[in-house]
Model the fold of this input.
Amino acid sequence: MLNELKNWPKTERDALDLQARLAAEVRAVPLNKPPETIAGVDVAYNDATGLLIAAITVLDAKTLNLVDQAVFEGKVDFPYVPGLFSFRELPPALEADRQLKIRPDLYICDGHGLAHPRHFGLACHLGLALNTPAIGCAKTHLYGTSCPPGELRGEKAPILDGDTQIGAVLRTQTGVKPVYVSIGHLITLDEAVAVTLNASPKYRLPETTRSADQLVRQRLKQASG
DNA sequence: GCGACAG
DNA sequence: ATCTTGTCGC
Done:
Protein backbone atom coordinates (compact mmCIF):
# COMPACT_ATOMS: atom_id res chain seq x y z
CA MET A 1 0.00 0.00 0.00
CA LEU A 2 1.13 3.53 -0.71
CA ASN A 3 2.61 5.40 2.23
CA GLU A 4 0.29 8.33 1.66
CA LEU A 5 -2.73 6.12 2.10
CA LYS A 6 -1.77 4.81 5.52
CA ASN A 7 -3.83 6.49 8.23
CA TRP A 8 -5.82 8.28 5.57
CA PRO A 9 -8.36 10.54 7.31
CA LYS A 10 -11.93 9.28 7.48
CA THR A 11 -13.48 12.36 9.01
CA GLU A 12 -13.52 16.01 8.09
CA ARG A 13 -11.81 16.91 11.32
CA ASP A 14 -8.90 14.53 10.74
CA ALA A 15 -8.60 15.76 7.17
CA LEU A 16 -8.39 19.37 8.36
CA ASP A 17 -5.67 18.44 10.85
CA LEU A 18 -3.59 16.65 8.22
CA GLN A 19 -4.15 19.52 5.81
CA ALA A 20 -2.76 22.01 8.29
CA ARG A 21 0.36 19.94 8.83
CA LEU A 22 1.03 19.31 5.14
CA ALA A 23 0.34 22.89 4.03
CA ALA A 24 3.51 23.98 5.82
CA GLU A 25 5.60 21.72 3.56
CA VAL A 26 4.58 23.22 0.22
CA ARG A 27 7.52 24.82 -1.59
CA ALA A 28 7.26 27.51 -4.25
CA VAL A 29 10.66 27.08 -5.91
CA PRO A 30 11.68 27.20 -9.59
CA LEU A 31 11.68 23.99 -11.63
CA ASN A 32 15.00 22.17 -11.77
CA LYS A 33 14.59 21.72 -15.52
CA PRO A 34 11.98 22.51 -18.16
CA PRO A 35 9.40 19.71 -18.15
CA GLU A 36 9.71 17.23 -21.01
CA THR A 37 6.53 15.41 -20.04
CA ILE A 38 3.37 16.82 -18.45
CA ALA A 39 0.54 14.85 -16.91
CA GLY A 40 -3.20 15.41 -16.68
CA VAL A 41 -5.16 14.11 -13.68
CA ASP A 42 -8.91 13.61 -13.56
CA VAL A 43 -11.56 11.53 -11.80
CA ALA A 44 -15.13 10.80 -12.93
CA TYR A 45 -17.98 9.50 -10.78
CA ASN A 46 -21.13 7.46 -11.10
CA ASP A 47 -23.37 8.61 -8.28
CA ALA A 48 -25.78 5.71 -8.76
CA THR A 49 -23.16 2.99 -8.21
CA GLY A 50 -20.54 4.81 -6.13
CA LEU A 51 -18.03 3.81 -8.77
CA LEU A 52 -15.20 6.11 -9.76
CA ILE A 53 -12.60 6.13 -12.51
CA ALA A 54 -9.27 7.95 -12.07
CA ALA A 55 -6.94 8.55 -14.99
CA ILE A 56 -3.56 10.08 -15.64
CA THR A 57 -2.46 10.96 -19.13
CA VAL A 58 1.15 11.84 -19.95
CA LEU A 59 1.89 14.18 -22.84
CA ASP A 60 5.10 15.27 -24.53
CA ALA A 61 5.38 18.87 -23.30
CA LYS A 62 6.53 20.12 -26.70
CA THR A 63 4.27 18.24 -29.14
CA LEU A 64 1.43 17.52 -26.67
CA ASN A 65 1.28 13.99 -28.06
CA LEU A 66 0.07 11.28 -25.71
CA VAL A 67 3.01 9.14 -24.54
CA ASP A 68 1.49 7.19 -21.64
CA GLN A 69 -1.75 6.72 -19.73
CA ALA A 70 -3.14 4.78 -16.78
CA VAL A 71 -6.59 4.16 -15.33
CA PHE A 72 -7.81 3.06 -11.91
CA GLU A 73 -11.32 1.85 -11.14
CA GLY A 74 -12.51 2.07 -7.52
CA LYS A 75 -15.23 3.31 -5.25
CA VAL A 76 -15.99 6.62 -3.60
CA ASP A 77 -14.41 6.75 -0.14
CA PHE A 78 -14.75 10.38 0.92
CA PRO A 79 -17.60 12.84 0.34
CA TYR A 80 -17.27 15.93 -1.80
CA VAL A 81 -16.53 18.77 0.58
CA PRO A 82 -15.31 22.06 -0.90
CA GLY A 83 -11.85 22.62 0.57
CA LEU A 84 -11.26 18.90 1.20
CA PHE A 85 -11.27 17.87 -2.42
CA SER A 86 -7.89 16.10 -2.32
CA PHE A 87 -9.12 13.61 0.27
CA ARG A 88 -11.64 12.41 -2.29
CA GLU A 89 -9.56 12.50 -5.46
CA LEU A 90 -5.95 11.92 -4.46
CA PRO A 91 -6.12 8.23 -3.43
CA PRO A 92 -7.54 7.00 -6.75
CA ALA A 93 -5.22 9.37 -8.63
CA LEU A 94 -2.20 7.87 -6.87
CA GLU A 95 -3.39 4.37 -7.72
CA ALA A 96 -3.54 5.30 -11.38
CA ASP A 97 -0.19 7.05 -11.19
CA ARG A 98 1.66 4.00 -9.90
CA GLN A 99 0.76 2.16 -13.10
CA LEU A 100 2.49 4.68 -15.36
CA LYS A 101 5.56 3.56 -17.31
CA ILE A 102 6.78 7.13 -17.71
CA ARG A 103 7.34 9.41 -14.70
CA PRO A 104 5.90 12.84 -15.65
CA ASP A 105 8.01 15.94 -14.94
CA LEU A 106 4.95 17.97 -13.99
CA TYR A 107 1.31 17.30 -13.06
CA ILE A 108 -1.56 19.59 -14.02
CA CYS A 109 -4.52 18.97 -11.72
CA ASP A 110 -8.16 19.63 -12.49
CA GLY A 111 -8.69 21.87 -9.47
CA HIS A 112 -6.79 24.39 -7.35
CA GLY A 113 -3.44 24.38 -5.61
CA LEU A 114 -2.48 27.27 -3.35
CA ALA A 115 -5.64 29.21 -4.30
CA HIS A 116 -7.51 27.46 -1.53
CA PRO A 117 -9.01 28.63 1.79
CA ARG A 118 -6.19 26.93 3.72
CA HIS A 119 -3.65 27.07 0.90
CA PHE A 120 -3.75 23.33 0.30
CA GLY A 121 -5.72 22.27 -2.74
CA LEU A 122 -5.45 19.00 -4.64
CA ALA A 123 -2.39 20.15 -6.61
CA CYS A 124 -0.46 20.82 -3.38
CA HIS A 125 -1.39 17.46 -1.92
CA LEU A 126 -0.50 15.55 -5.09
CA GLY A 127 2.80 17.37 -5.56
CA LEU A 128 3.75 16.71 -1.96
CA ALA A 129 2.68 13.04 -2.10
CA LEU A 130 4.72 12.40 -5.25
CA ASN A 131 7.49 14.87 -4.36
CA THR A 132 7.11 16.25 -7.89
CA PRO A 133 6.21 19.60 -9.46
CA ALA A 134 2.43 20.09 -9.69
CA ILE A 135 0.04 22.91 -10.50
CA GLY A 136 -3.68 23.49 -10.29
CA CYS A 137 -5.72 24.63 -13.28
CA ALA A 138 -9.36 24.99 -12.23
CA LYS A 139 -12.39 25.92 -14.31
CA THR A 140 -14.06 28.03 -11.61
CA HIS A 141 -13.27 30.20 -8.62
CA LEU A 142 -12.90 28.68 -5.17
CA TYR A 143 -11.07 31.19 -2.97
CA GLY A 144 -9.43 34.58 -3.19
CA THR A 145 -10.13 37.93 -4.80
CA SER A 146 -9.52 38.75 -8.44
CA CYS A 147 -10.50 41.03 -11.29
CA PRO A 148 -11.27 39.75 -14.81
CA PRO A 149 -8.12 39.63 -16.97
CA GLY A 150 -7.92 41.27 -20.42
CA GLU A 151 -9.72 39.50 -23.25
CA LEU A 152 -6.58 38.39 -25.13
CA ARG A 153 -4.93 35.00 -24.82
CA GLY A 154 -2.14 35.21 -22.26
CA GLU A 155 -3.58 38.11 -20.29
CA LYS A 156 -3.92 37.47 -16.58
CA ALA A 157 -4.92 39.00 -13.26
CA PRO A 158 -3.72 38.10 -9.77
CA ILE A 159 -5.74 36.01 -7.33
CA LEU A 160 -5.19 37.65 -3.95
CA ASP A 161 -5.61 36.51 -0.38
CA GLY A 162 -5.42 39.88 1.33
CA ASP A 163 -2.19 41.33 -0.04
CA THR A 164 -0.64 37.96 -0.90
CA GLN A 165 -0.84 36.58 -4.43
CA ILE A 166 -1.96 32.95 -4.38
CA GLY A 167 -2.65 32.42 -8.07
CA ALA A 168 -3.63 33.94 -11.39
CA VAL A 169 -6.79 34.12 -13.47
CA LEU A 170 -5.49 33.31 -16.94
CA ARG A 171 -7.06 33.79 -20.37
CA THR A 172 -5.92 30.76 -22.36
CA GLN A 173 -7.99 31.68 -25.43
CA THR A 174 -9.02 35.14 -26.61
CA GLY A 175 -12.61 35.95 -25.70
CA VAL A 176 -13.09 32.74 -23.73
CA LYS A 177 -13.75 32.39 -19.99
CA PRO A 178 -10.43 32.32 -18.10
CA VAL A 179 -8.99 29.49 -15.96
CA TYR A 180 -7.69 29.68 -12.39
CA VAL A 181 -4.00 28.77 -12.09
CA SER A 182 -2.08 28.26 -8.87
CA ILE A 183 1.00 26.35 -7.86
CA GLY A 184 0.84 22.99 -6.19
CA HIS A 185 4.43 22.27 -5.25
CA LEU A 186 8.03 22.71 -6.49
CA ILE A 187 7.28 25.38 -9.11
CA THR A 188 6.71 29.15 -9.30
CA LEU A 189 3.47 30.83 -10.33
CA ASP A 190 5.07 32.38 -13.42
CA GLU A 191 6.22 28.93 -14.52
CA ALA A 192 2.78 27.49 -13.82
CA VAL A 193 1.17 30.16 -16.00
CA ALA A 194 3.67 29.57 -18.82
CA VAL A 195 3.16 25.80 -18.72
CA THR A 196 -0.61 26.20 -18.75
CA LEU A 197 -0.49 28.48 -21.79
CA ASN A 198 1.84 26.13 -23.67
CA ALA A 199 -0.45 23.21 -22.91
CA SER A 200 -3.52 25.13 -24.16
CA PRO A 201 -2.76 26.02 -27.79
CA LYS A 202 -6.29 25.54 -29.12
CA TYR A 203 -8.82 25.14 -26.35
CA ARG A 204 -9.69 26.77 -23.03
CA LEU A 205 -8.35 23.86 -20.98
CA PRO A 206 -4.86 22.32 -21.21
CA GLU A 207 -4.55 19.25 -23.43
CA THR A 208 -3.51 17.33 -20.31
CA THR A 209 -6.85 17.99 -18.64
CA ARG A 210 -8.74 17.33 -21.86
CA SER A 211 -7.11 13.97 -22.52
CA ALA A 212 -7.50 12.80 -18.92
CA ASP A 213 -11.13 13.93 -18.90
CA GLN A 214 -11.79 12.14 -22.17
CA LEU A 215 -10.26 8.94 -20.80
CA VAL A 216 -12.21 8.82 -17.52
CA ARG A 217 -15.42 9.68 -19.32
CA GLN A 218 -14.94 6.88 -21.82
CA ARG A 219 -14.01 4.32 -19.18
CA LEU A 220 -16.85 5.30 -16.85
CA LYS A 221 -19.33 4.82 -19.66
CA GLN A 222 -18.06 1.37 -20.58
CA ALA A 223 -17.87 0.36 -16.90
CA SER A 224 -21.51 1.31 -16.33
CA GLY A 225 -23.31 0.34 -19.50
C1' DG B 1 -27.90 35.76 9.88
C1' DC B 2 -26.69 35.49 4.66
C1' DG B 3 -24.09 33.92 0.68
C1' DA B 4 -20.20 31.05 -1.37
C1' DC B 5 -18.60 26.72 -1.96
C1' DA B 6 -12.53 23.10 -6.93
C1' DG B 7 -15.11 18.28 -8.76
C1' DA C 1 -19.30 15.71 -11.03
C1' DT C 2 -23.79 14.48 -13.79
C1' DC C 3 -28.59 14.85 -16.34
C1' DT C 4 -28.43 16.51 -22.11
C1' DT C 5 -29.92 18.81 -28.43
C1' DG C 6 -29.84 21.97 -30.89
C1' DT C 7 -28.09 26.12 -31.93
C1' DC C 8 -25.69 30.61 -32.32
C1' DG C 9 -21.36 32.52 -34.00
C1' DC C 10 -16.69 32.71 -36.12
Remarks:
- The longest strand of chain A covers residues 37-46.
- Chain A has one domain: 29-220.
